[in-house]
Structures are given as structure tokens and as C-alpha cells.
């Protein structure tokens, strides 16, 4: 197998856009990615299109790629519709990499697009609620019945983790402050205002210990990535970002099994021949603030019980030794679930190309993305870890 590379990326601003459609969001991201890669639509051989919730929120089912991309010049190309909860577009990226590395295609496109905002918030929350095994009894996972199933699940996990993790609520607030600072410097982020520890801690309690600012918000957006062979990238005259690893693990559905994020990270490090200390910049799935700290442990960035010390050290801040979520992450960049994984790759590609402005982790050569989705037997249903390098 040959190595696949990233030739170009693009994304829309993330936010709540009630007047925008899945089609318009997709078109904007695709146009930007193709221009960044110096590629014309006719040069794209195949499209991997990711969306998680259109069937619930907009009613569009079955042909989401074909309907969303019909005006982009890509009509008629082979298109695959990928749905894998919040990991939909990272799953599409995984398939795109495999298609190029195998030699099946030379140049393909990944699109992650999501329209979550709705005049009736119950519709949006209802989409999230379907990312569980609906035949399971959720009572063991849900604590306070806030109406947001996943925030109740995250809160229950957090309360259990805090018993041995050596962290305090203030550490979760530190994640939020760091996230909002990064978001304030990202023109594509949903939340652009900075905040303070006091404001985070005093914001409305959603599901103890999670306050409002500690929870990712509903949003809309799209991101796109051109993946090609290294030889094709040279023809395009672009600086390639190498895909060193992209692992995917589904939950075995057995309580007490190794966490999927831990398994995916181990596989990715093995594929890349690298370890946690080699990573300069990372985008982690911080659907809630505690999740970032939990993933510090899952990914080997610190030993169990040391996540609190790591966030307090400043090493994971902007420009730190290991800059984590310089885009603002899900908390501040936003979390239109089908676009989230691709947006992580967009940010890391820009970081490795030294195009991130005030968010730049100087000297970044190796980057990692962790994206997970759904819920099964007390763990995420799926997790992916991607490692990129220049």
C-alpha cells in the first residue's frame, strides 16, 4: 500500500444557521477545499460524504451526498453516504485514506456536513438521543433527566471518574477558559468570546457537575478534505500532509472492556511508529469539558490521576508543549456532529502547514485527532485516532 496525503482542506464557519441548508453548507466547504488543493471537480474520482442526523432534523434520507453535492460539479461521481454518529466524517476520512492507499483512486474528497439547528430544540436533542442502543435500559447512564441524554451520560461518567482522578470542578473550568480563548482567535468558531473561571463555574447547572459552559452546543457546519496519493500531490504543486495512521475501533458492547479511545490510540501509535511524547498538537473530542481531561489519560498524554496537573501546567494551552484543541474544540469551535471529525483534520492540517495565525503551535510536525461517537455499554460506540505529519 502507498501512503495517502492531504492536499487541501476547507470548512464553513460553525454556528446556528437556521436559514442555511445542508446543501449550502456542503457547497461552501467543498469549494474551499478544492481551491486549497488546486483541484477541479472533474479531478475528484470519488466522494465520501458524512452526515449523522439529517434524517431526523431535516428529513433528508438515503441520498444525502447526491442531494447535497448536486450543484458542486461532482454530480455523477461515485458517492458513499457515511453515518457513524459523531465520528461520521472521521470514518469517511478513514475510508478515503484506505481507497487511495490501496491504489483504487488517486484523488478523492471527504465531506462532513451537518444541519442540527431547528426551530424546535426537541428535534435537535432528539437526534442525539438516537445515538444509543434504544433497546437498552438507559437508566444506568442517565442521571438528572435534563432532556440532553448525552450530557446526562457525560455527567455520570464524570462523577465516577472524579472519585479517583484527582481533579476538581475548577479543572473543568480551566478547559473551558482555554477553549474559549482559542475560539476567540478562530474565525470559523461558533463561540468567539473569552470567558473566566468564575463565569464558567457560575453558569447554569446542566447536569452536575457540568455547567452550561462545560457542554458543547448544537450547531451547523461543514468541512471538506482532499485526499490523494503523494505523487498526485506533487502534480498539484501543494504541500502534502502525510496520513501516518488512522485507526477505528467499535465498542465490544461488554461492560468493563478496554475503552475504545484507548484501543484506537494504541493502534494508531503502532501504525505510525510514534508515541504520545511525539505529538505536538492535538484535537480531542471534548463534547464536555471533562472529556478533554479524560482523553489526556486515554491517549497517554499523562498517567492516570495526572490530568488535573497537566491542564494546570499550561502545557496543553495555545503554544504549549502539547497544544490541545487550538481550534477551540467542540466546546468553542462547535459540534455539528457529522462535520466534527473532518473539522479536526482541517485544523490539524492548517497547524502542520503553519497557517493557524495566533493559534499556531510553532514548530508543529506531528498532530493527532481523536474523535468518538455514540454510546454502547458504558463507552463510546466508536472511536477513531488519526496521526498526521509533515
Key structural traits:
Peroxisomal Thiolase, Chain A, domain 1, alpha/beta
Description:
The chain has 390 residues and is of the alpha/beta class. It has two domains: 4-119 and 220-243, Thiolase/Chalcone synthase (Peroxisomal Thiolase, Chain A, domain 1, 3-Layer(aba) Sandwich), CATH 3.40.47.10; 138-216 and 246-389, Peroxisomal Thiolase, Chain A, domain 1 (3-Layer(aba) Sandwich). It is 37% helix and 18% strand. The protein contains 14 helices and twelve strands. Strands 3-2-4-7-1-8-12-11-9-10 form a ten-stranded mixed β-sheet. Strands 5-6 form a two-stranded antiparallel ribbon. A hairpin with an 8-residue loop joins strand 11 (366-373) and strand 12 (382-389). Helix 4 (88-101) packs across helix 14 (337-352), helix 7 packs across helix 11 (289-298) and helix 11 (289-298) crosses helix 12 (307-313). The protein starts with a strand and ends with a strand. The relative contact order is 0.20. Residues 140-144 have low confidence and may be disordered.
Low-confidence stretches: 140-144
Note the overall shape.
Answer: globular
CATH topology of the largest domain: Peroxisomal Thiolase, Chain A, domain 1
Biggest β-sheet: strands ordered side by side in the sheet: 3-2-4-7-1-8-12-11-9-10
pLDDT averaged over residues? 95
Under CATH, the homologous superfamily of the largest domain reads: Thiolase/Chalcone synthase
The total beta strand count reads 12
Percent range for β-strand residues: 15-25%
The secondary structure category is: alpha/beta
Radius of gyration: 19 Å
CATH uppermost class of the largest domain: Alpha Beta
CATH architecture of the largest domain: 3-Layer(aba) Sandwich
How is the main sheet built?
Answer: 10 strands, mixed
* DSSP helix fraction: 25-40%
| Integer tally of domains | 2
What is the chain-wise order of helices and strands?
EHEHHEHEHHHHEEEHEHEHHEHHEE
Distance between the termini: 19 Å
Specify the number of helices. 14
Domain Thiolase N-terminal: 5-230
InterPro entries: Thiolase, Thiolase-like, Thiolase_C_2, Thiolase_CS, Thiolase_N
Keywords: Lipid transport, Lipid-binding, Transferase, Transport
EC number: 2.3.1.176
